[in-house]
Amino acid sequence: MEKLSLKYIVRKPKEQTKNTSLLILLHGYGSNEEDLYSFASELPSDLIIVSARALQDLGFGSYAWYTIHFNNTQKKFSDILEAIKARDVIYKFIKEVQEKYTISPEKTFLLGFSQGTILGMATALNHPTKIKNIIGLSGYVNHDILPDNLEILDYSNLSFYCSHGTVDQVIPIDWARQTPVFLKSLNIEHTYSEFPIGHGVAPKNFYELRNWISTKI
Prior knowledge:
This protein is α/β, with parallel strands linked by helices. It has six helices and nine strands; from the N terminus they run ββαβββαβαββααβα.
């Protein structure tokens, strides 16, 4: 793992060509860079897959992008200042990886799960010219970490794939259902799917997102 803003692991194609794309993975709370990386072998071979490790060490191989106060009266409460810091570090990391592997924003995918989704979507909405395709699994749009000038930013370049479990016990499905409504309000191209699962990725979900990636490469 080369020293960049975040620690990471990488899978590179046998040969990088002009068609090679970059996929950056952002894991969820309490996980690590190995988690989403398990998808790598099932994804298109002409992808550079970079899986990042979150900032905060929770011990025993678990990491978080920012603190969640589980004893809050609403069960969860995100530390917004830490989330903003994490969002900005992710943006810096994306630029570093693009430069390292000579990949343009037009060939860049960002995939997140849960907390990684929240930050991935926020990063794209703050910097829409730096990423092309965003995959948000089991997350939601946190408006506290979005730009103030949403209405005047150009989001015509972006494309989102979002999915959620209908019986998610961690992030309520009602929160996720606001995502396509919000993206539509900004005229952002998007696909939204629901699956009868909890806080995770069902096989049908994975096959759908894999096909979505294949159509965007």
